[in-house]
Amino acid sequence: MNKKDTEYFKKLLLDKRRELMEQMDFIKEAEMETTVKEASGDHSSYAFHMADQGTDTMEREKNFYYAQRDGRLLYHIDQTLERIEKGTFGLCQSCNNPIDRKRLMAVPHARLCIQCKSKEERVNES
Ligand SMILES: [Zn+2]
């Protein structure tokens, strides 16, 4: 992979990283709003309050899930940026063969070539 290609993927990864950071900030803000609402304590009706609480909990779980998934993706993106610096970007971490360019276009933070990836998925399924 030449320098121009590497620069291209680096830009792609940095853009994706920024996007993720913004999403995570948004989730954190939503989380804080929920906490403030709960702290202000609306005790108008017991049943009503219970229903509210259920919805809030579900919202929070969903946000937590997104935060985790984004966090993992962010980790992979950071690792990939490190590999760009080290000059090992675009190589499969399992068999060391170059990862297909089309695959990198779709998933710039891919760690494995498509062969190793499908092997890994088969292992996880069984
Ligand atoms: Zn491989």
What is the gist of this entry?
The protein is an all-alpha fold and 126 residues long. It folds into 2 domains: 1-89, Four Helix Bundle (Hemerythrin (Met), subunit A) (Up-down Bundle); 90-126, no CATH class. The protein has helices at 3-40, 46-86, 101-106, 114-125.
Description of the molecule:
It is a single chain. This protein has 2 domains: 1-89, Four Helix Bundle (Hemerythrin (Met), subunit A); 90-126, no CATH class. The protein is built from 4 helices and no strands. The chain has helices at residues 3-40, 46-86, 101-106, 114-125. Helix 1 (3-40) runs antiparallel to helix 2. The longest helix is centred in the middle third of the chain and has 41 residues, at 46-86. It is elongated. Zinc ion binds at residues 92, 94-95, 97, 112-113, 115-116.
What ligands does this structure carry? zinc ion
Main beta sheet strand tally, sense and closure: none
Order of helices and strands: HHHH
Distance between the termini: 35 Å
CATH class of the largest domain: Mainly Alpha
CATH architecture term of the largest domain: Up-down Bundle
What is the approximate shape?
elongated
> How much strand?
under 5%
